[in-house]
Design goal:
Radius of gyration: 20 Å
CATH architecture: 3-Layer(aba) Sandwich
Shape: globular
Keywords: ATP-binding, Nucleotide-binding, Transport
CATH topology: Rossmann fold
Number of strands: 12
Largest sheet: 6 strands, mixed
Protein name: ABC transporter ATP-binding protein
Order of helices and strands: EEEHEEHEHHHEHEHEEHHEE
Number of domains: 1
Distance between the termini: 61 Å
CATH class: Alpha Beta
GO molecular function, one term: ATP hydrolysis activity
Number of helices: 9
InterPro entries: AAA+_ATPase, ABC_transporter-like_ATP-bd, ABC_transporter-like_CS, P-loop_NTPase
Length: 266
């Protein structure tokens, strides 16, 4: 399976209705860049504008200097692959057939799956740990298995940019770590939305924080994940310290006192 290439991404003043307001960010070639922020902050809206299911009302999305809005949908699909938040694959497809759909932008619409397409699909399924499920029908998969199958579909697409909306949703801890580690090893530029701040710190080169449709800050995990930022954006108290083994910032959330409950002095 041919690996994806790495291309830089630049988002300039991106807006969509009242859900996204002048958002800006960059992802250097090969970087894994995370979007964090509370529910309703605009993460999914931004990603949908990037992969083309929502039209931006202002701003530009540049991939290696090319404005994605100027590309035909087929050309855009060759360059940008996505793993959506709520996957709902065709119930009549096998897992192998679902993954092979990643080759569709590279073929004419009447062309079926070739032996090479299916070989690519099988290699991608092996890579995400689903090699033994290739002949199963998609509805028989668990939520986590379905998510990994969609990651495999994105892999066979061979994109320059990989966009993932909550890729660890429905996954147990082991597979959360496996999927994010896989994204890191691909060598492609990746943009992903995450709720788990510790996963974002461990797997992202840089992080951008969205609040009410605006990017409020961006930088390395150590620069962004501070108690002050977490309090201001999420409204919770937290301690942040480097992990003793990895040095990665680790967030420990502090429970809010229950009204009327006495604090122990022991």
């Amino acid at each position: 399976m041919t690996g994806p290439s790495a291309t830089g991404l630049s988002i300039e003043g991106l807006g969509h209705a009242d859900r996204l307001r002048g958002a800006h960010l960059t992802a250097r070639p090969g970087e894994t860049v995370g979007l964090i922020g509370p529910n309703g902050s605009g993460k999914t809206t931004l990603l949908r504008c990037v992969y083309g299911t929502l039209p931006a009302t202002s701003g530009r999305i540049l991939l290696d200097g090319t404005d994605l809005a100027r590309l035909a949908p087929r050309d855009r699909a060759r360059r940008v692959a996505t793993v959506p938040q709520d996957p709902d694959p065709d119930p009549d497809l096998t897992v192998r057939e679902l993954v092979a759909l990643g080759r569709s932008p590279h073929k004419r619409f009447w062309e079926g799956d070739t032996a090479e397409d299916l070989a690519r699909a099988d290699a991608a399924l092996d890579r995400v740990g689903l090699g033994g499920l290739a002949d199963r029908l998609c509805p028989t998969l668990s939520g986590g298995e379905r998510r990994r199958a969609l990651v495999a579909r994105a892999l066979v697409q061979g994109p320059e940019l990989l966009v993932l909306d909550e890729p660890t949703n429905h996954l147990d801890i082991r597979h959360q770590l496996d999927v994010l580690a896989l994204v890191r090893t691909l060598g492609t530029t990746s943009l992903l939305a995450l709720h788990d701040l510790n996963l974002a710190a461990a797997f992202c080169d840089r992080i951008y924080v969205l609040e009410a449709g605006r990017v409020v800050t961006g930088g390395t995990p150590a620069e962004v994940l501070t108690p002050a930022l977490i309090s201001a954006v999420y409204g919770v108290d937290a301690e942040v310290a480097p992990h003793p083994r990895t040095g990665v910032p680790t967030v420990l959330y502090l429970p809010s006192p229950v009204p009327g409950q006495k604090t122990s002095t022991m």
